[in-house]
Q: What sequence folds into this?
């Protein structure tokens, strides 16, 4: 049996994109065996093609009931670190309408997105005093300028992620409202 390790960069606000990529690997016969390096390195083993649903979940303060709820519903936990959880569940390829979902409603997805936004905002706010200290302690203006540029890029990235999550929440809520 052959294996492959794939490094795949993705952003927390693009979890659906990476889920679809892993599912496409399964359809090609590459079964996800392990996830490493903070959800960036994926180890696959070659096998028969199969249809699997993968879902990333971002949770704080998880208890045993959380895990038990998904396992009772037939989900298998593939990863659990740093508030990120990766679940998978098989389904029949000839019944795509039966593709399993972890999130039962739009509000659950919006709440997950809000948890990610809160984390991005918190980390961004924690970086502000660090930036100020670095700027004050660094005597060379060239290094201060470099530090400032790097921090501004990080803040821009966080702001972009928050904006993307807000846009996704709006789309989900509009779609939900139009279905009612």
A:
């Amino acid at each position: 049996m052959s294996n492959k390790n794939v490094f795949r960069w993705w952003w927390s606000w693009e979890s659906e994109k990476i889920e679809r990529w892993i599912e496409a690997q399964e359809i090609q016969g590459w079964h996800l065996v392990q996830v490493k390096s903070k959800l960036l390195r994926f180890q696959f083993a070659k096998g028969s093609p199969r249809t699997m649903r993968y879902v990333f979940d971002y949770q704080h303060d998880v208890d045993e009931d959380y895990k038990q709820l998904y396992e009772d519903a037939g989900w298998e936990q593939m990863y659990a670190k740093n508030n990120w959880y990766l679940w998978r569940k098989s389904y029949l390829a000839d019944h795509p309408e039966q593709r399993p979902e972890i999130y039962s409603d739009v509000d659950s997805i919006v709440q997950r997105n809000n948890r990610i936004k809160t984390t991005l905002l918190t980390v961004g706010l924690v970086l502000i005093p660090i930036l100020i200290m670095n700027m004050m302690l660094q005597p060379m203006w060239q290094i201060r300028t470099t530090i400032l540029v790097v921090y501004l890029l990080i803040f821009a990235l966080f702001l972009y992620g928050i904006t993307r999550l807000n846009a996704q929440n709006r789309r989900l809520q509009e779609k939900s409202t139009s279905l009612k």
